[in-house]
Structure to design on (465 residues):
């Protein structure tokens, strides 16, 4: 049984990448550290265990990244997907510090593999974890244990008792029993509220009940709600979230990245009425995959259906669920539960609008439609070769963007603009400062890694003083 009568230098709330970066950094600075993770040990790591890579600035090729990816291009990519809803100072700082974060990861025992190409188009921008996010989390936890960080699983922070911006103590439940933890400084790295369907429904309405939660079921926003109720400044829109189109057969919670579908750029996507509703070939997939969850969420019953033919079957990573195949478009529609006549008409209209071009699955190409609404601006090829293939789509929520406001030192701000005396934040709980909407593949890990290290460093300084 832990000694709850002691006072730690730093308390870290959370067990994902951002929390672990903070805990390790603070411990390496000489502080005593307690990390509390609400999940059982077998499910530790939050959403980080479902990740694959981190978007990383680099001036030249590395062992796992090709060519160069510089600050201005990285910033331009982020600006486009967020539509300007970002804090440029914090965003550029994050971008620049990803280079150091990559070195920190490697020094912490995280291993990398050559980046993937093809549909993902990430070989130049994203460093992939060998073994995925679970291996990354395990490496950090192993290091934390070697460093002597105290770790409690099945332990949830329920109330950060604040007095004029100062966290006096934290009420927790440890394996179901109430306890109190005292620490000189606190780092909140406990994620968003995406697993709380009641909270999601407040922003999205009844449609939220049809959402699937890709990540951990333990991210219910308990700490976030507690802090906002105590006058911590908020940032981000409660209706904005990282939502991707995933296989509609995925589980309600914790399906992870394996449930994502990357076939959209090479398909047409129809709703339950058999109608297309958006340009499937608007841009390369890493810059557009995160808009498709919201698009599907806006359709009747929050469902969509991707339809391709044999020409495109090998151009993307397949779903973990078997593809639905048929010898004709009408037969496929029936198997998908759609009106065959309507789907046949939609496919015929699309095929007639395709303009011949030089197809290239790895970049923006010349294959487009003409006179079609909505258009398909790239990778548009007639759907004519059997077998015809379909996948059901549902919105898969990864994380929410409503969070607490922080400064460049990861210090949490109060509603009146004052900094908290001893509270810092990192990861999804503060990412709304940088991601107002949209998403770039691997950027969530970039924010968590950079601000986790900053929060750990600054919390350690604060504890020593």
């Amino acid at each position: 049984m832990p000694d709850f009568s002691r006072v730690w230098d730093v308390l870290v709330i959370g067990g994902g990448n951002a929390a672990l970066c903070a805990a390790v950094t603070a411990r390496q600075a000489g502080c005593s550290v307690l990390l509390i993770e609400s999940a059982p040990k077998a499910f530790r790591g939050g959403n980080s265990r479902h990740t694959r890579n981190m978007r990383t600035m680099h001036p030249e090729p590395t062992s796992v990244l090709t060519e160069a990816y510089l600050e201005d291009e990285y910033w331009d990519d982020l600006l486009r997907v967020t539509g300007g809803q970002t804090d440029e100072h914090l965003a550029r700082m994050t971008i620049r510090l990803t280079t150091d974060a990559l070195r920190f990861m490697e020094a912490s025992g995280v291993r990398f593999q050559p980046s993937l190409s093809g549909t993902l188009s990430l070989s130049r921008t994203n460093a992939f974890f060998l073994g995925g996010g679970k291996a990354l989390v395990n490496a950090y936890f192993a290091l934390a244990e070697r460093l002597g960080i105290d770790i409690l699983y099945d332990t949830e922070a329920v109330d950060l008792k604040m007095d004029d911006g100062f966290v006096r103590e934290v009420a927790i439940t440890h394996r179901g029993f109430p306890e109190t933890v005292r620490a000189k400084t606190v780092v909140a790295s406990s994620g968003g509220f995406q697993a709380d369907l009641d909270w999601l429904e407040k922003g999205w309405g009844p449609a939220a009940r049809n959402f699937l939660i890709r990540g951990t079921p333990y991210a219910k926003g308990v700490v976030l709600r507690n802090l906002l109720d105590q006058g911590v400044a908020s940032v981000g829109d409660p209706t904005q979230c990282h939502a991707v189109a995933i296989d509609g057969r995925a589980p309600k919670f914790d399906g992870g990245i394996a449930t994502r579908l990357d076939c959209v750029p090479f398909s047409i996507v129809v709703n339950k009425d058999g109608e297309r509703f958006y340009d499937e070939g608007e841009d390369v997939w890493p810059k557009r995959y995160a808009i498709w969850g919201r698009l599907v969420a806006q359709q009747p019953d929050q469902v969509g259906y991707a339809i391709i033919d044999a020409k495109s079957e090998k151009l993307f990573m397949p779903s973990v669920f078997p593809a639905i195949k048929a010898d004709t478009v009408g037969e496929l529609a029936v198997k998908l539960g759609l009106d065959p006549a309507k789907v046949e008409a939609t496919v015929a209209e699309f095929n007639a609008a395709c303009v011949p071009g030089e197809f290239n699955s790895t970049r923006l190409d010349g294959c487009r439609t003409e006179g079609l609404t909505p258009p398909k601006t790239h990778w548009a090829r007639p759907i004519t070769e059997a077998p015809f293939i379909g996948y059901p789509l549902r919105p898969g929520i990864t994380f929410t963007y409503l969070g607490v406001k922080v400064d460049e030192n990861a210090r949490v701000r109060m509603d009146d603009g004052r900094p908290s005396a001893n509270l810092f934040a990192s990861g999804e709980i503060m990412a709304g400062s940088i991601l107002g909407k949209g998403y770039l593949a691997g950027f969530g890990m970039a924010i968590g890694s950079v601000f986790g290290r900053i929060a750990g460093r600054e919390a350690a300084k604060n504890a020593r003083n």
In short: The chain has a mean pLDDT of 94. The chain has ten helices and 21 strands.
